[in-house]
Amino acid sequence: MMTKQTTLRLMILAAMSSVGSLGLTSFAATLSNSGNTSNANTASEQLKPSLVGVFINGQEVDAVDMLYDARVSELPANNTTTGPLQANTYYFLSKDDLIRLTGVTFEPSAQNNQTDQIAKANTLYLAKTPIGDAKLTENDVIKKDNKEYLALSSLKKLGITADYNQANLAINLNMGWRPESINNGAAANNKDNTEKLPIDYYPSKAGLLGLSFDSSLNVSETRTAPNQPQSTNRNIYANVGAFGYGLGGVWGAKAVGIDSHSENINNDKFKDTAVDGFSTLPSDWEIDNLYWAKSGEKVATRLGINQPNSLGQGAQTSGSEFTGALIAYSNRDIGRHLSYFDDNSSSLLQNTSQDYQHIIGTGEPGGVAELRIDGRAVARVQIGLDGRYEFLNLDVSQLNLTDTLVEIAIFAYPLARQPLEVRPIFLGKRRTNAATNELLIEAGIGRAGNAFNSDSNDNHETAAHVYAEYGLNNRMAVRGGVNTNLQNNSSDSDDSVSWHTGLNYSPSTRSNIDLSYANTPNQELWQAQLQYHLEKLWANYQYNLREYDNTSSAVAGSQRDERHQLFLNYQPTNRTNITLNQYYEDIANNLDSESYYAYAGINHQFSNALNGGLNWDTRGDRYNYRLSWQDINRQGYDNRVGQNTVGLSGDNDSDTLSLRHQFNDQTSLGQSISYRHGHSNLLYQGDINHRFDGIGLGGGSPLSTVSNLLSLGYSLYDNQIGWQADWQLTHQNSVNVSIGYKHKYVDSISTERLDGLLIDDVLIRDKSLPAWTQNNYLYARLSFDMFKAPKQNLKLGNYPRQSLGSVIVDIAHPAEPNIGREAMTFTLDNQKVNASLLGSSDTSSQYLISNIRAGEYTLNMDAKDLPLEYSTSELPTPRIRVANYSPTAVPINLQRTYGISGKLANAKQDVEIGVYQDNQLIQSIVSGNFGYFQVFGLPAATYILKSPGYQEQKVVIDNDFVMQIVLPPTD
Question: Which of 149, 360, 701, 820 is deepest in the core (most CB within 10 A)?
Answer without folding.
Answer: 149
